[in-house]
């Protein structure tokens, strides 16, 4: 079997068009959805990420502000900036780009963001809302994975999903989202024994590790859906995921490519969350 691709670029395009339409409707009511992106220091990867986020906002008709600060910025000054953005009515979403310089307590900064503007979904209140099924903001990467499953009309009820990775930003929220849709969820991590025995039982596999070839064809049940969150470099320096794409695509029913899979969906869901924040604020 050759798997069907779940095209993150195509799905993103569709969702971003919907965001632009809803943003227009809000503008007609006098509200322009606004995202503030805060970058501290000059991490090259972070600079690319924030540029892409700001550009995506502009392309979808959202207002965005990029605040760049020197790596020497103090924690107190950053907390003061977050507080000012919390109180700025033109800003509906606040994103502090991680990682932050070592002298700044990243969790403290995240907790300083108003939960109503926590469009990254990293605040403890957002995590609690996800856990209890209350309204809140879902972290963008696993939220994008859920949209990808939705796009193929996949019914998770009673299915066995295996999430490989248990980080607070991908693995754990992914598991909770799948559980909320009535999947039976197994979370694997670096101490998991016999990963292959688990993945071979899975109807859905989400790989979120950050290591190449964590998932190979012999570990996948024929017809399983495979979502690849990982971002790694291969020997030629090209972007690749955690999944051995060439092998697994012959076994899976659906698979996300890297690049062009989960990556573009992450930024798209940031736009969705920002729009949602603006809609909630305007109601
Ligand atoms: P992370 O915080 O480093 O977490 C990685 C997880 O993988 C940990 O839970 C770790 O287990 C587990 N792990 C490590 N080796 C393993 C192994 N051999 N078998 C099973 N599990 C193993 O990473 P993250 O932030 O979740 O990100 C994961 C990957 O997704 C990275 O490549 C990252 O770049 C990528 N990512 C992509 C996007 C996107 O937009 N496409 C967004 C976010 C992240 P322990 O907990 O036991 O250490």
CATH class of the largest domain: Alpha Beta
Whole-angstrom Rg: 19 Å
What is the count of distinct domains?
A: 2
Report the biggest beta sheet as strand number plus sense, adding barrel if it closes. Answer: 6 strands, parallel
Distinct helical segment count:
10
* Number of distinct beta strands: 11
How are the strands of the biggest sheet laid out side by side? 1-11-8-7-5-6
Q: Helix/strand-derived class?
A: alpha/beta
- For the termini, the CA-CA separation is 49 Å
Q: Bound compounds, please?
A: NADP nicotinamide-adenine-dinucleotide phosphate
- Helices and strands, in order, run as EHEHEHEHHHEHEHEEEEHEH
GO biological process, one term: L-histidine biosynthetic process
Organism: Limnohabitans parvus II-B4
Family: Belongs to the tetrahydrofolate dehydrogenase/cyclohydrolase family.
Keywords: Amino-acid biosynthesis, Histidine biosynthesis, Hydrolase, Methionine biosynthesis, Multifunctional enzyme, NADP, One-carbon metabolism, Oxidoreductase, Purine biosynthesis
Outline the structure in words:
By secondary structure, this protein is an alpha/beta fold. The chain has two domains: 30-114, Rossmann fold; 140-262, Rossmann fold (3-Layer(aba) Sandwich), CATH 3.40.50.720. 41% of the residues lie in helices and 16% in strands. The protein has helices at 8-28, 44-59, 75-86, 106-112, 124-132, 140-151, 171-180, 195-199, 245-248, 262-282; strands spanning 4-5, 34-40, 63-69, 93-96, 160-164, 184-188, 204-207, 225-228, 232-233, 239-240, 254-255. It has a six-stranded parallel β-sheet. It starts with a strand and ends with a helix. Bound molecules: NADP nicotinamide-adenine-dinucleotide phosphate.
